[in-house]
Amino acid sequence: MQKSAVRWGLLALFADGPKYGYQLKNEFDAHTSGGWALNVGQVYTTLDRLARDGLVESVGSNADGREVFAITGQGRQALADWFVSPVTETERPRSELAIKLAMAAIAPGVDVAAVVQAQRTESMRQMRDYTDLRRHEVQSHDVAWLLLVDHLIFTLESEIRWLDHVEATVLRRAQPHRAPTPAAFRPDDVEVGGW
Amino acid sequence: MSAFVLRFAGVSRIYGVGEQEVHALDDVSFDVAAGELVAVMGPSGSGKSTLLALAGGLDAPTSGTVSVEGVGLAGLDAAALARLRRDRVGYVFQDYNLVTDLTAAENVALPRELAGVGARAARREAVAALAEVGLADLAGRFPDQLSGGQQQRIAIARALVGQRRLVLADEPTGALDSHTSLAVLEVLRARIDAGAAGVLVTHEPRYAGWADRTIFLRDGKLVDATGPRQTPEQLLGRMV
Ligand SMILES: Nc1ncnc2c1ncn2[C@@H]1O[C@H](COP(=O)(O)OP(=O)(O)OP(=O)(O)O)[C@@H](O)[C@H]1O
Ligand SMILES: [Mg+2]
């Protein structure tokens, strides 16, 4: 998991008041159904770094003796900046797929259509299962959870569309003698890019 | 009787002859059980509408058999086939196919009236079906007084009215925005969950996600279908 996603996610939880470490973990889990598998050690490490960078500060201990942190003025500013800045370097969890298909397209003897189809079947299976999950559990979660599941669904959608594109591109390249298309409508021979 | 509402066994459909021959479907076999929705995906021209037309008895295979509720369609005479299409199969056409000189409510009521339901009862059922797709207010409009998306939803209401056992929908969300599409999928899914069987042709992976399985067609051949479900724990472990 991307470190900065956790760092900013935790800092954002301070926006509504001071908190201690375990409380942060519980809140984070509640919003993501534990899907991020955050352990309490990670929470404390991240808290230390946030304090070191001056974004949160210790404001003493609560009745149970737990150290409580609050967001600083600098932290609020950084958080506000983060919300309005576009994400430019995201983690690319599926880049292995992009590499696999690009290599399949140039390696001799690989049936690209079969590679595409195997992936499409798997991606569609995930699509079905996340859609099910969303339909059945939409009532029992908050909007943060919902948006995270939707993110997966939309990511899968673009992946499946990209697979269609890969298949069509490879097939077109493999059949140079097809019936001529009027020049104005000739499908562009774009290279696969963007990953 | 078969447990499957729809069964394709080795179905091929060839259009034209000789040079002009098109293998629109090539040896396709699959089943759809009661309570199951199957999505059909594939590039344009891959045979999706052909498959649906065969399932609905609007067209006959060149070889192989199509059965609905255990009855082979090839064995039915024209009258029996018409009855089956009217009473048990709801069909949403890719181009809606509404009767232009009937109002929205009359279009939806038509299959019920033809099935022998009294005019009043048919109208009541029609208005209820229109309400399900969010169009109760437009019951008195004629198709040419409606937007494309509204016409499409009327076609969906017409396919769902009554106790259809099999719902066949060809791109039923093609003209709808994302919010309306999801509302239509809710209605369709509720019908399936109540025991109907359905086939949904779609280009949208996100809408195919509402089906229990997706089958892919390429050049008339069925290439694959989605596998078994994963548990919520497996799914949420990958939420990042
Ligand atoms: N009546 C017909 N006569 C001759 N060929 C036909 C006829 N109907 C369909 N075809 C051909 O059969 C193939 C499959 O057509 P079909 O309409 O099933 O495709 P589709 O998958 O529904 O495409 P789309 O996504 O564009 O709706 C195409 O090559 C089409 O040209
Ligand atoms: Mg079609």
Question: Which strand order do you get reading across the main beta sheet of chain A?
Answer: 1-3-2
Biggest pleated-sheet summary of chain A: 3 strands, antiparallel
Give the strand line-up of the largest sheet of chain B.
6-7-8-3-9-10
The CATH topology of the largest domain in chain A is given as Arc Repressor Mutant, subunit A
Largest interface: A-B, 41 and 30 residues
Number of domain modules of chain B: 1
Helix-strand sequence of chain B: EEEHEEHEHHHEHEHEEH
CATH class of chain B: Alpha Beta
Number of helices of chain A: 7
**Mean pLDDT across all amino acids of chain A:** 80
From the alpha-carbon coordinates, what is the Rg of chain B to the nearest angstrom? 18 Å
- Low-confidence segments of chain A, given as residue ranges, are 178-195
Helix content of chain A: 55-70%
N/C terminus separation of chain A: 19 Å
Order of helices and strands of chain A: HEHHEEHHHH
Q: What coarse outline of chain B follows from CA principal-axis ratios?
A: globular
**What is the number of helical segments of chain B per DSSP (H or I, 4+ residues)?**
8
Keywords for this entry:
heterodimer, A: 195 residues, mainly alpha, Arc Repressor Mutant, subunit A, 2 domains, three-stranded antiparallel beta sheet, 7 helices, 3 strands, B: 240 residues, alpha/beta, Rossmann fold, six-stranded mixed beta sheet, four-stranded antiparallel beta sheet, 8 helices, globular, binds adenosine-5'-triphosphate, Tscrpt_reg_PadR_C (chain A), WH-like_DNA-bd_sf (chain A), WH_DNA-bd_sf (chain A)
